């Protein structure tokens, strides 16, 4: 049996889990499902690509780092892209979501996010066209690591980067003052306001973190696959499934849910066929929710 699907599933699942963190934070803190989150991934990838082009125009092309397909300009551009994507999320919240949240009807905010998603995606296609593009067109040789499994240097770095980002996110949520305030607000918004928590800062932190991680995930997809305006839409449902499976509000749960979804999809492609990929993932999701409706790490609401 070919075990290559394990690596493929881990890579896909790590990207899904990284994107699902923003979805689970938005739902638990802002109390709505943000359908525009996938488009933050696409905007982040295209924004990073634009910054890479700008750096290349200013300082010239740079050689890749070791066996990787990219060099330091992409690393610097990713950091800038994360900031730009966070600014986009804050702008969208200021223009649209904040005004609708004040009215207290979450379904209106959800529908607004759906409309914002279509607008962002259409604008992206208008600016960059629908043709796929790439950070690098170089071809990497996969390295055999045993048991019939092969992995490229880029994939190794993406997995390591995901571990670093998720660890940093966990430490931020558990040990920083802002992280504790975010967790308190997600559990009881009214009580958080009573004890003096700055709710505006919590909302800003939620958008910044979610959008920045979405950009990072989008860049990784662009490095490993390609960049397309629809790339975020393709991952939106798996990210929602991962957030629900892991338990709304749980960062480790979102990542674990992403890994489960990614591995199950990869296994479905290997064992059954690519056409069953999404069906298998959501069958696992429903089975888990029947046993534990609040997800793997979620808490039952009182």
3D architecture notes:
The chain is an all-alpha fold and 302 residues long. It is 73% helix and 2% strand. The protein contains 11 helices and 2 strands, in the order H-H-H-H-E-E-H-H-H-H-H-H-H. The protein has a two-stranded antiparallel sheet with strand order 1-2. A hairpin with a 2-residue loop joins strand 1 and strand 2. Helix 1 (4-30) packs across helix 6 (177-187), helix 2 (37-59) packs across helix 8 (199-224) and helix 10 packs across helix 11. It is globular. The termini are far apart. The mean pLDDT is 88.
The proportion of strand residues reads under 5%
Name the helix and strand elements from N-terminus to C-terminus, one letter apiece.
Answer: HHHHEEHHHHHHH
What coarse outline follows from CA principal-axis ratios?
A: globular
Biggest sheet strand order reads: 1-2
Helix percentage? over 70%
Please mark out the parts with pLDDT under 50 across 5 or more consecutive residues, or reply none: none
Number of helices: 11
- Please tally the β strands and state the result: 2
User: What class do helices, strands and sheet pairing give?
Assistant: mainly alpha
Oligomer: single chain
For the report, how would you describe the main beta sheet?
2 strands, antiparallel
How large is the radius of gyration? 19 Å
Mean of all residue-level pLDDT scores: 88
| Termini gap | 47 Å
């Amino acid at each position: 049996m070919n075990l290559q699907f394990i690596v493929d599933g881990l890579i896909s699942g790590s990207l899904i889990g990284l994107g699902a963190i923003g979805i689970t934070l938005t739902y638990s803190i802002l109390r709505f499902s943000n359908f525009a989150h996938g488009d933050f991934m696409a905007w982040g990838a295209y924004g990073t690509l634009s910054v890479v082009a700008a750096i290349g125009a200013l300082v010239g092309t740079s050689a890749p780092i070791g066996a990787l397909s990219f060099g330091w300009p992409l690393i610097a551009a990713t950091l800038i892209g994360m900031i730009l994507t966070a600014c986009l999320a804050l702008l969208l919240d200021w223009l649209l979501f904040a005004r609708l949240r004040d009215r207290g009807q979450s379904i209106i905010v959800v529908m607004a996010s759906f409309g914002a998603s279509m607008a962002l995606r259409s604008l992206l296609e208008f600016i960059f066209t629908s043709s796929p593009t790439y950070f690098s067109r170089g071809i990497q040789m996969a390295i055999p690591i045993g048991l019939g499994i092969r992995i490229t240097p880029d994939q190794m770095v993406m997995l390591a980067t995901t571990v670093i980002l998720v660890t940093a996110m966990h430490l931020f949520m558990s040990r920083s003052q802002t992280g504790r305030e975010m967790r308190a607000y997600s559990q009881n918004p009214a009580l958080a306001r009573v004890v003096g928590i700055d709710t505006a800062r919590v909302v800003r932190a939620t958008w910044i973190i979610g959008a920045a991680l979405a950009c990072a995930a989008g860049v990784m997809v662009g490095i490993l696959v390609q960049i397309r305006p629809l790339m975020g839409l393709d991952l939106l449902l798996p990210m929602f499934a991962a957030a629900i499976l892991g338990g709304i509000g749980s960062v480790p749960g979102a990542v674990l849910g992403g890994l489960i979804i990614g591995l199950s999809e990869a296994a479905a492609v290997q064992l059954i066929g690519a056409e069953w990929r999404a069906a298998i993932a959501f069958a696992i999701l429903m089975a888990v929710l029947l046993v534990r409706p609040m997800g793997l790490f979620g808490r039952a609401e009182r």
